[in-house]
Each structure stands twice: as C-alpha cells, then as structure tokens.
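Methods — Computational structure assignment.
A single polypeptide chain was analysed. Its primary sequence is given first, followed by the predicted tertiary structure written as structure tokens.
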Amino acid sequence: MQEDHLLSIDDSALVIRHEDGKVKVKRVHRLTGAGALGGASFGLLMGLLFLVPVAGLAVGAAIGAIGGHFLDIGLEDDYIKNVREIALNMTARAI
C-alpha cells in the first residue's frame, strides 16, 4: 500500500512481549543518519566558505548526527507508554 501511495508511514514502534512477561518497545525510525547527512552537507558548504572543507564536513556530520539522534518527532512518548502498558496485560499474538 505504501508503494502505491495509498498509505504513508511517518513513524512506527515495535512492541515485543517476551515469554517471561517483560515488554520491550523499539522505535523503528531513527533520524541519526539523516541528521548526519544534512549536517555534513551544511558543514561542507561552510567549510568551503572558510577554506576548510574536510573539517566542516566532519564537524557538520557530527553535529547533525547528534541533533538527529535526540530529535523527538513522530509518535508521542505518552502514546508509546500507553501501548506498552496495554501489552503488559495482553496475551494475544499477531501472526
């Protein structure tokens, strides 16, 4: 459906309930790589402006990766916590 542009997935989380009853939540989409790419591009442009393109590229990529890693967009944390609490009480399985 996503390939046919009928559905667009912006963010998702995977909720796993182990046999011992513990629940683990994994956020599927991470922005670290996208932030690093954007930061590297901007850093390269700034580095070219100041005649140090390699340093600009490296610093921009590092700052972009850190910013992308800590950027919190998509599913709300409270929503994911609520789903986790529901999964703690469930016994159903998806196949």
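Note: The mean pLDDT is 80.
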